[in-house]
Please model this.
Amino acid sequence: MREIKEYTAGEDLIIKTSVRLLVPFIQLFGLYVIVHGHYSPGGGFQGGVLLGASFILLALAYNIKTSQEYLSIGVNALFSNLGPAIFIGVGVLCTVFGGLFLDYSALDLLIPLGPVEWRSFGIFLIEVGVGLAVMNIMVLLYWNLSSGGNMDEGL
Amino acid sequence: MTVLSILAMVLVTLGLFFFTVGTIGILRLPDFYTRLHAAGKCDTLAAVLVIVGVAVYNLQPFSFGALLVSGKLMLIAGFVFVTSPTATHAITEAALVLGVKPWQRKGKNRP
Model:
């Protein structure tokens, strides 16, 4: 029986190279899905999942430290709070200008674009918030679950 | 029956042929690595051929919208062409790390 060379996990050139090649395109596609969410399949949640999965892919192929060079813990915490803040903020802003909660046509008083355009653009604003929240909470969940809460090393 | 139709039919039929060969390989080959060998290569090429065939067929009433959809299909083909072999490689590496032994012919004294 021929001896099989010992291999160690996580030090593979092929996986690292193809992940490095693919991550920018995955992130670009995630932005495309978020931005085109209101008139084609997709939306904030799906685009956010794609963006979060790109960082999880980096953490899987390299390690958690490398993914934190691209998305630091502070930025992650800021964005995961900013996403719900955008959602609630846009909704409350509609009530401030006299509409119902998330009734975007009321925002016509703020910037006069026309109520129909505001209904379309308001969905886009909401989806940016949802995308930011989903992306950062997904990455945060992966970091915490794979490292036992330390967020420094793991898989 | 236009030229593009015939080209699309040839491409999709070739893709289905490679899918069949890959399936036979998965069913008939002896162990994990050889089955992955069949599945990885044949399914990658077959998926790319089928997607390119669909993209060619989609171009028939030629318009800018059809060109856009075909371009997106070609991007999907490129994505599959990169990711599928990488996924196969990752699964193989995981099996090697876990210590799955490759198949060898029994009975003879092999080195």
Summary: Residues 64-98 of chain B form the longest helix (35 residues). The mean pLDDT of chain B is 90.
